[in-house]
Amino acid sequence: MRDTESLCFSPDSIDLRELKLLGQGRTAEVYLFQDRFVIKLFRVNFPKQAIDNEYIVCRSIGGLLNIPKAHQRLTVDGRDAIIFDFIKGESGFRHLLRKPWIVAGFAREFAAIHAKIHSTSVPDRVPESKSILIRNINLHDQLPPKAKTKIIQYLNSLPGGNILCHGDFHPENILVSLGKPFVLDWMTATRGNPLADVARTSVLLKWAEPGPGTPALIKILLGSIRRKFHGHYLSEYLKLTGARQADVEAWELPMLAARLMEWLPASEKRVLVTIVNEKLKRF
User: Fold this and answer.
1) Biggest alpha carbon distance in the chain?
2) CA 186, 135, 255, 215: dihedral to nearest 10 degrees?
């Protein structure tokens, strides 16, 4: 059953100065509201299409997957916002750092969640994944035009699809609450080939750098956890779905090229450009 009921709040009744800031990232700040909800307050000039996409997707699949319920899309202090249910928990990676011995089991559960996402009906208004990848590849200047053209031609040769894809599925977008995982951040959801979504997850697990300020020891531990996690995740996903690893890896080149438009450390972008150029030599 799809999520159709919601509460409605007046923006005039919300005073951010009185709310507790729970966290913030590159796209939004999250405030606790009435002890039962959170207000996800997006950065100024953040694309409205992405915000609308997250709200539409969450309202459409809220009764089908474990996600925080989305109640309202509104404007607070001149900024776009969404009100969700508050779920107290910890991110997937923090969960693994506390309990590194559960990596294999958590990775298999993570794979099962991803497979379930890929069996869920997709809202018609969700954008098509190839068009988003092409847009993102063209948005950055990390690669020369000829390389971009070659990658886009290759991307267009890959099989399409109309399956719900999360678009940024990694352990930091899993919230573990009382042992139950909830999937967060649906702004980048698309319709497309599910193996493209798996390739995006693989790219993040293999090459994404920890955030700035992460202690050296934690970086080493995270690197070890991510490598083990990725191996168990991919093996389980392939077993559950019957997909082939080679077909997942076929999507890595456009995923890497598209990721270069994101807000990444310069060191990570240099690594990604090197990998893209190495993959391009195979064509």
Assistant:
1) 58
2) -60
Residue 141 burial by Cβ neighbours in a 10 Å radius (0-12, 13-18, 19+): exposed
Gap between the Cα atoms of 74 and 90, Å rounded: 26
Residues 247-266 pLDDT 10s: 999 999 999 999 999 989 99
Find tokens 């694309």 and name the residue: 47
**What one-letter code names the amino acid at 23?**
G
Six-digit token string for 71: 């109640």
d(CA 144, CA 19): 46
What are 121-153's pLDDT values in tens digits?
Answer: 888 889 999 999 999 999 999 999 999 999 999
Fold of 90-280: Aminoglycoside 3'-phosphotransferase; Chain: A, domain 2 (3.90.1200)
Q: Which of 127, 147, 129, 126 is nearest to 138 (CA)?
A: 147
CB under 8 A, 24+ apart: contacts of 157-162: 158/130, 158/193, 158/196, 158/250, 158/251, 158/254, 159/193, 160/128, 160/130, 160/192, 160/193, 161/129, 161/191, 161/192, 161/193, 161/194, 161/196, 162/122, 162/191, 162/192
The residues spanned by each domain of the chain are: 11-85, 90-280
**Rounded distance, CA 113 to CA 230, Å?**
14
Rounded to two decimals, the pTM is 0.92
Q: What are phi and psi of 123, to 5 degrees?
A: -60, 140
H or E segment and range at residue 20: strand 20-24
* Alpha carbons 134 and 254: distance in angstroms, whole number: 8
CATH number, span 11-85: 3.30.200.20
Q: Tokens in use for 97?
A: 């750092």
Q: Confirm whether 11-85 and 90-280 share one CATH topology.
A: no
